[in-house]
Amino acid sequence: MAKMYHKEKSIQIKSSASALYNNLGVLRIAPRCLTYFTVVHANVVNMVSASWDGLNYSHRQLQSKEGSMATSSSLIMQAAWCVLPSRDLLVLTSQKGIQMYESDGSIMVYWHALDTPETPTAKAVFARGIAAVRENYICVGVSSGSVLVFDVPSKGSNITLSEVLEEHKEAITDMASECSGSLECIADLVSADDSGLLCMWKSGDDFQLLNKIPGFDTSCSSVKLWKGTVIAGYGTGQIRLYEGVTGILHAEVNAHARWIYSLDIAPFTGLLLSAAEDSWVRVWHLTLTPETNSVEIEHMYNECITDTQICGAKFCDGDGYAFAVTGYDLSEIIRYTQV
Amino acid sequence: MRSGPTGHYVTSWGSTEASCSAFLAKGMSQRTLPLLIINLGGEMLYILDQRLRAQDERDDKTQRVMNDIAAALFSKTFLEEILKPQDVFTHRALRTVLTRIAHASIMRLNPASMDKLYDLMTMAFKYQILLCTRPRDLLLITFNHTDGIKGLVKDSHNLVNQINEAQRQLIELYTPLSDGEFQLIRHTLLVLFQDMQTRVSIFLEEKIQNPNGRFVLSTSGPVPYGYEVPGSIRWFTKGREVRRTVFPSGENYTRALNDASFNLSGDRVTHLGTNMYTKASPGDSQPSDTSNSTRKQKQVEYAPNLLATEELNFLAKLMGGMEVQKLSNADAGFKVNLLTLEQEDEGICVVEGAEQQSPKVINIQAIQDQLVNTELARIAGEFSKDGSPTERHLNKGDDLLAMMDDM
């Protein structure tokens, strides 16, 4: 197979990546020729700002919060940027609640505490699954299956909980909003849970449930929504492509030999990135033909990260020209760019 | 740290040690502790069994030690406590509990030996957690351990029954959990073992660990039972498969032939959790070196740390029920020395039972200050080598301490 990508210099981070789904956040800041990355380590988020010329790196660490305390030992489940038309926010979800920061991590603008039981129950309590939806919503999933919808003003900290969506019965694993930029797509958001159930939503003052796509008894750990197509990665190492609104299954890819941890899509080109515990990162190409309502997925490239259980993989730009990878116990962000 | 103009500031510290997950008792899953204790306890029994045989102790003495430790590990009251939903223990608390379990026998471990033992146990279990092909295999690994322990104490029918009863409780508790919930348990364990990279001789020799401490992850072999081998794409129209294409997966996986048994006994299929020391030579149950490749690990081992009050109370309750063996004159307690190779580069082979240099001792003064009136102070006092004055209760704890000082 022709070499599509080659390895670049890795970015060192202050502490290693924890084994968590979707454990890499990327925010590209074109006007400043910078890219931000986030990697979760236990109760800390390592943030790196990398200049495109490869000469400047600066680091910051954010910590989980609890109650009135600024710092906590509670574990962080996920960190991701929410890109809204008016502003970008960095969202952290933990066992105790949801923290929202300005995109450079400098100021916390909002804190939402989860209801935690007085005595430990058998069921774990945490927030996980983060997506920015349309103009002004940030949606966050919870271990109970609830999806919290936050209304975000164009500036300031007057963020409010607008709605709680209760369709899932198992813990939310990941969520994704329509990323093609097209306003024609009906579905705005897909939420996934530990049973593999996928829910399709339309945003608004009241979010509307468009469809429920049942799972097949296996957790869906990572999900993307592009041009109305749901791309879902599962614990079985499989990727499924569904038409979101109807639930029609287009294709099933036997992609990996182990649990999939991360999927990402480059919206301008339709390149898809998948990464799993089996140490492999794979690049695919999706083409959608709306006239025939068909989806094509073509395998493009493989890369093996030796002796590493990959926990995060994301494209660094909308074309898929570069991607970055994190692995459990690794204190670096490994990068690849197209040849 | 860059500061913003107004609003809350986020504290970001210069030292990454403060974030070391091993100090924290937090876990995502509340169902992790039983698997943690039983698997670590199992590894401990395998290693002690191998070391005692290597030290050429009389068979009946060794058997007594094995039986006593297994009985403590699987004691009804102890299991009842750890089976309740709760966070995982810190490494310090784990080490304390496991040492107490070991000292339910007439065998004694000095703190340095316990450090080595703990390194071996944790690296072995970390290896098993990482390599299991699907999260549910954690249960199979646990059952391999219980099967293995039953083998070590097979002549004691009561003990075998006790272990079977424990296994039944595990089956009842864990069988209903989903794969996602098992993965959460696995992630909780992986946070606890994060950054631990002690090199272990037997792992290095068998090429399952790299010289840099990272484990070797193979990209071939069977996929989990029921999984598909990567390399194909199925296309559907109206719910029916209409086409199949292939792609190069770059690897060499095969389908799994049999499913494993999750019952009281049966073929577990995986070898993870079985006793890797049974055919090993005496030198195998040794970590390669005392210095770990990460600074963080040293911090965990030797910096004074205060156990949280809740944890202390819980441990006191847990261990109050565990009787530490009184050593009568007839029984002179014997020591297990895991320090046969003091300095690897000097190649010195230390004579069994002797202690030529004072090993690094965990500073538990800080802990003792906190634990003044609790049962735990008495227990912790048994591990103190410097005999520093604290408000220890004068009772059987002192007999044991005196005995250890004499060794």
UniProtKB/TrEMBL annotation, chain A:
Keyword Nucleotidyltransferase: no
PROSITE patterns on file: WD_REPEATS_2, WD_REPEATS_REGION
Record's keyword terms, sorted: WD repeat
Protein name from the UniProt record: WD repeat-containing protein 54
Domain annotation WD repeat-containing protein 54 beta-propeller: ranges: 4-339
InterPro entries registered for this protein in UniProt: WD40/YVTN_repeat-like_dom_sf, WD40_repeat_dom_sf, WD40_rpt, WDR54_beta_prop
Highest taxon above the source species: Eukaryota
Pfam families: WDR54
WD repeat positions: 253-294
From TrEMBL, chain B:
N-terminal signal peptide: none
Any Pfam family hit: Oscp1
Superkingdom per UniProt: Eukaryota
Region named Disordered: 274-298
InterPro entries the record matches: OSCP1
Positions with biased composition (Polar residues): 274-294
Gene Ontology CC: cytoplasm; plasma membrane
Protein name stated in the entry: Protein OSCP1
Species: Triplophysa tibetana
